[in-house]
Amino acid sequence: MPSLAAGLPPKFDAREPAVLADPYPTYRDLRAAGPLCRMGPASYGVTRYDDVAALLRDPRLGSEFPEQYHRMSAGDGPAGRFFSRIILYRDPPAHTRLRRLIGKAFSPSLVRRTRPRIERMVDALLDPAAERGAFDAVTDLAFPLPVMVVCALMGIPESDDALIRPLALDLSRAFAAIVAEPDRAAADVAVEGLRAYLGDMLARRRADPGDDLLSLLLAAEEDGARLSHDEIVDNAVFAFFAGFETTTNLISTGCAALLDHPDQQKLLRDDPDLTPGAVEEFLRYDSPIQGVARLVREDVEVGGRAIRAGRVLVLLIGSANRDPARFDDPDGLRVDRSPNPHLAFGGGTHLCLGASLARVEADVAFRALLRRFGPLSPGAPPVRETGGTLRSYASVPVTADPR
Ligand code: HEM
Could you tell me which CATH number the domain at 17-399 has? Predict the structure, then answer.
């Protein structure tokens, strides 16, 4: 088998300004050049759909990185330690146990029950926009909604939203390969603040349970196993990150895509029942999470090349979702695309636990936009957010006549 030294794969720097602005032409060149690209010392990106889909399910790859990896990215403080404990970065058997118990609480019925509240939140957020006939899809809708939803899910009073939101934002900045020093300090404060807040809340739920997610996490039990206080607190803190910017980006990206493709907006407006499929297409077209990292635990082969244990593979979801070998017209936005086996929520054992919640939030948001407004037009060019680790917008100005 050829080793990596023979004919090095091309380099890929995800932080290059041109890539941050628009990674898709680069992904196209990388996929054409081969199944792998070099991303850093002992770290390779996987470019093609079939490989990414298979590797997401491959038990020879792990998500549990040595503790020094998290310390290197996020520092020695509470944030670095927090990352090594959450479900996202655990492998079996710890992951299997956490996933069963958290999955029990985070059930489809909880999401279904939450939908009417999400509808009320979206309507309240859009009321001022309807009066003005103009709004910013990010600041007026996509940014505030997900934190409101996660707070509601956990039974946190709306008045505390303003306390939680800046902490959740600071924490999200720490989900990067290398976190800048000031962001590390802010992330440490955020982890401590959110842990203290949710720890108190959890103690109150223990004495007086309700039907919120924290109470369900306390009650979750399988084969006599339960989650400890710290496991619940850590993973509830993680839900604030996991469910926040990702969903913000899905809604912002979808709005920007509809502004950019008036024909697709018209299709959706003529048939709002296309909305769930349109949401899947937004997820494929500009995936909020562009890549997930895995530690190679046993040697694997990618596209005929040996990758040794100890290396890091970054599964490039954003590239896989534009692979012409899997999708017709991969660079085109088609709200009626079917089937649409995109990988935006990952796959295998770490498949996103909040996917159904994110789908409901986006479905409610887009249905409300189409119901309450006439055609949506760009108010000004959208502005990309290039500082974060996710694919996102800082602003998507929209003008639209209320109906
Ligand atoms: C559009 C919105 C979202 C996207 C694109 C997204 C994407 C993802 C992806 C790609 C993964 C897998 C990461 C990996 O394999 O390393 C993941 C995991 C996860 N997501 Fe999401 N997510 C979204 C929304 C949410 C929401 C709303 C929540 C909860 C409030 C959530 C909770 C989680 C959790 C707990 C995991 C870890 C699962 C595990 O490790 O077993 N996500 N998400």
Answer: 1.10.630.10
373 Cα–ligand 1 center, Å: 31
Protein residue with least CA distance to atom 19, ligand 1: 352
> What are the sequence ranges of the domains in the chain?
17-399
C-beta of 243 in contact with ligand 1 (< 6 A) = yes
316 touches ligand 1 (CB under 6 Å): no
pLDDT tens readout for residues 260-275: 999 999 999 999 999 9
What separation in angstroms does the CA of 65 have from each of 9, 73, 83, 327? 24, 11, 10, 33
pTM: 0.96
- In this predicted model, what pLDDT tens digit does every residue of 308-344 receive, in sequence order? 999 999 999 999 999 999 999 999 999 999 999 999 9
d(CA 402, ligand 1 centre) in Å: 34
